[in-house]
Structures are given as structure tokens and as C-alpha cells.
């Protein structure tokens, strides 16, 4: 996985395609501007004043877009933090549920059930040979599910059997694997969409914008970048979980 900061990636994409070359002299010099006027007016001082006024207005627009890019990156950062915290809370709740209903009680319950007999059992086992030790271990494992059976409760919590815990863990692993495959497919689709959008931004780079195109492109870019960042982050978390 790439270690590039997704927020910096968003900032770079928006700056590269919405700012340069957006200044008026970069795509329309003063000499080219005068060609829009009849020959008798091209040397008029008002033409130069008009050009400077347009240049100033366009620079103000560029500055506004630049500030909006910074604001958008900050909003994205806040959203990512909120989503990360929400997912962390969900994972903690799921882990607490598993621990409270299964693994934790199996461990603590097993200690209580075998607690007083453990010392005596260990002392007796030390006197036996390796074959009897293995046989005793097999019998203890086979009786664990009977001692801590389904539906048995202690302290208001239901204990899960070893088989139920293994089934739950297996289902969780299969779910993560399926989610990872889905996210990988979404990432591939998003990459193709980003490439298509980048191919259609040539007019933006050279200042030839149709009515409402800039707003539409900016909105689409924000949406695609946000979805891509979320999908990549979830894919990375899925890998770490496995």
C-alpha cells in the first residue's frame, strides 16, 4: 500500500488542476487580448486598463479557489477522523461482546471450574508417565464443552463453548476476506474513474471552462477522492486485522 498522505494527495490534485495555469497572462497575453478589439481601439489606454482589471479579478478568483481547497482538505481531515473514531468504537464494541460472551468467560470459567483441582491434578500428573499425561489432556479437552455448555450463565453472562468460539472466529475471518476483496474491486473502479476525470480536465488546465464546469469537476473530485481514501484505509485495516 502507498504511504502517501491522502489529504496531501487531495490538495495536490485540486491545486494542479484548478490553479495553474489559471492566471490571465498564462493563457491570454495582453497582445492577444488586444486582438479582440477593432484595430482603431487596440492602442487605447482603456484597453490596457480593462486587461489589468480582468487580471486582478481573475487573481482574486484564484486566491478564493486556493483558500477553498485548504478549507476542503480540513473538512476531509475532520470527516476522516470522525469515521476512524466511529469504526474504532464499533470494533471495540464487537471485541467486548466476543470477550464478554465467549473467550473471556471460557478462560475465567475454566479457571474457576478447575481451580481447586488443578494443584492436585498437576501433582498426580507429575507421577505419571508421558502417555498418561497425553490421555489426561485429551480427556480434559473433550470434557471442556460439557463443563462450560451453551446456555450456562454466570455473573449475567452467557458462556460460549470452544466450538462456538471457533465458528465465530472463522466467520469473522471469512467476512474480512470478503470485505477486502470487495474493497479491492472498488479501488480498481475508482482508479479508472479518476483516470477518466483527469483525461477530461484539459479544458480546466487552460482556462477554457463551460458554464458550471468548474463547480461540477470540483464536486466530483472531492467525492472520488473521499471514496478512494475511505476504501484504501479500510483495505489496509483489513490486511492488518488478518
In a few lines, what is going on in this structure?
Keywords: Coiled coil. The protein has helices at residues 6-18, 24-27, 30-34, 45-126, 130-147, 162-199, 202-205, 213-241; strands spanning 153-154, 157-158.
Give the secondary structure arrangement, pairings included:
Layout: H1 6-18, H2 24-27, H3 30-34, H4 45-126, H5 130-147, E1 153-154, E2 157-158, H6 162-199, H7 202-205, H8 213-241
Antiparallel strand pairs: 1-2
Helix pairs in contact: 1-4, 1-8, 4-5, 6-8
Beta percentage is under 5%
The helix/strand order is HHHHHEEHHH
Total DSSP helices: 8
Mean residue pLDDT: 71
Total number of β-strand segments? 2
**Principal-axis shape:** elongated
Helix content: over 70%
The chain-level structural class is mainly alpha
What is the CA–CA distance across the termini?
A: 15 Å
List low-pLDDT spans: 103-120, 143-155
Largest sheet: 2 strands, antiparallel
Characterization of this structure:
This protein has 242 residues and is mainly α. The protein has one domain (6-241). It is built from eight helices and two strands; from the N terminus they run H-H-H-H-H-E-E-H-H-H. It has helices at 6-18, 24-27, 30-34, 45-126, 130-147, 162-199, 202-205, 213-241; strands spanning 153-154, 157-158. Strands 1-2 form a two-stranded antiparallel sheet. Helix 1 (6-18) runs antiparallel to helix 4 (45-126). The longest helix is centred in the middle third of the chain and has 82 residues, at 45-126. The two termini are 15 Å apart.
Amino acid at each position: 500500500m502507498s504511504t502517501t498522505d491522502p489529504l496531501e494527495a487531495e490538495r495536490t490534485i485540486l491545486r494542479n488542476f484548478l490553479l495553474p495555469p489559471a492566471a490571465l497572462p498564462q493563457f491570454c497575453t495582453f497582445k492577444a487580448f488586444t486582438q479582440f478589439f477593432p484595430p482603431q481601439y487596440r492602442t487605447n489606454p482603456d484597453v490596457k486598463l480593462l486587461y489589468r482589471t480582468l487580471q486582478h479579478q481573475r487573481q482574486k478568483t484564484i486566491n478564493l479557489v486556493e483558500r477553498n481547497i485548504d478549507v476542503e482538505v480540513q473538512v476531509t481531515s475532520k470527516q476522516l477522523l470522525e469515521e476512524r473514531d466511529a469504526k474504532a468504537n464499533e470494533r471495540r464494541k464487537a471485541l467486548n461482546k466476543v470477550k464478554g460472551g465467549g473467550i473471556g468467560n471460557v478462560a475465567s470459567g475454566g479457571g474457576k471450574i478447575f481451580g481447586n483441582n488443578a494443584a492436585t491434578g498437576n501433582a498426580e500428573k507429575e507421577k505419571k508417565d508421558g502417555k498418561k499425561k497425553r490421555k489426561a489432556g485429551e480427556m480434559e479437552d473433550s470434557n471442556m464443552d460439557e463443563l462450560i455448555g451453551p446456555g450456562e450463565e454466570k455473573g449475567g453472562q452467557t458462556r460460549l463453548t470452544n466450538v462456538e468460539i471457533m465458528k465465530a472466529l472463522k466467520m469473522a475471518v471469512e467476512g474480512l476476506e470478503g470485505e477486502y476483496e470487495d474493497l479491492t474491486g472498488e479501488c480498481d473502479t475508482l482508479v479508472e474513474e479518476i483516470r477518466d476525470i483527469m483525461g477530461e480536465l484539459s479544458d480546466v488546465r487552460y482556462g477554457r471552462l463551460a458554464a458550471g464546469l468548474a463547480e461540477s469537476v470540483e464536486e466530483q473530485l472531492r467525492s472520488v477522492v473521499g471514496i478512494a481514501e475511505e476504501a484504501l484505509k479500510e483495505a489496509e485495516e483489513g490486511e492488518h486485522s488478518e
